[in-house]
Amino acid sequence: MSSAGKNWDQYVINAEEVARTSGFRELKDRIVALSFDLENPVVADIGSGTGLLTLALADRAQKVWAIDISERMADYLRAKSSSAGFANVETVVASAVSLPLVDDSVDIVVSNYCYHHLSDDDKRRAISEAFRVLRPGGRFVFGDMMFSVSVVDPRDRELLASKIRSISSRGIPGLARIVKNAARYATGRWEKPARSDWWASALADAGFTDVRVEPLEHEGGFAAAICPSDSDKVYRPLRDCSEIEIAEPIAARG
Ligand SMILES: C[S@@+](CC[C@H](N)C(=O)[O-])C[C@H]1O[C@@H](n2cnc3c(N)ncnc32)[C@H](O)[C@@H]1O
Predict the structure, then answer these.
(1) Lesser CB count within 10 Å: N end or C end of the chain?
(2) Do residues 198 and 183 share a domain?
(3) Tens digit of each residue's pLDDT (9 = 90 or more) over 167-187
(4) Model pTM?
C-alpha cells in the first residue's frame, strides 16, 4: 500500500535498520520518557513501522494501537510483538489522516519519523486526528524530520549543505543520488519535512496546549503537546483540504 506514491511495503528491512541507529534510539528514549509516568495508558503509535516505539511502550501500557499504512510493516511488527510476548499490541493498517479509533479513547499518541511523508494539508489532518482520539488531558509526543529546504535560515542552510557534502563524498553514485533527490524534490516526491515553527503553530491551531517543539542538532526535531481538559477540548474538523486520502478498512488482527 502506498502513501504519497511510496510503497512502504518494500521498505520493511530498511525501516528496521534505521530503527536500530543511535539517532532513532535517542528519539525513542525521549518519547518514552515522556510517557512512562502515566499508569496503564492506552497508546496509539502512528506510523509504527517495525515497532520502535510500540515495543518500548507495550510493557507498561494497557493497550498499544500500532497504526501503519503498510500491511507488511504491520505483519512484521505483529510477529515481533508476539515474540516479545505482548498480548496488548494491536496492529492496524490505516492512515495517519484517518485513525480508526473512537474519540477521546487514547491517553498518549506517539509517532516517530512518519509525518514528514505527508503533505502539509495531510500533516494538519493527522494532527487533527491525534487531537480527536486523545482523551482530554492526553499527550501527543513525536519526533520527526524538522527543517525546510531553504538557504535563508542558518540551521536549514547548514543541514542542507551537510547532506550534500555527505552524499557527494560517495563519488559518482553520491552525485547521481543528489540529482535523483533534486528531481524528486522538484516533482513533490521527496520527503516533506516541516520546520519546528510550522509544527508549533499547526499544533496550537488544532487546539493543543503546552506546545513544545525543539529542533535537534541533526535534521530531526521533537514535539510534545497536551490535549486540553474536558470543557476546553474543542475538536475542529478540517473540511477544506485539497487531497483526501481514504483509510483502508480496519484489518482485524488477533
Ligand atoms: C521511517 S518509518 C518510521 C517507523 C517507526 N515509527 C520508527 O521510528 O522506526 C515511517 C513509517 O510511517 C509509515 N507511514 C507512511 N505514511 C503513512 C501514513 N499516511 N499513515 C500511517 N503510516 C504511514 C510507513 O509505512 C513507515 O512504517
Answers:
(1) C
(2) no
(3) 777 777 666 666 666 666 665
(4) 0.85
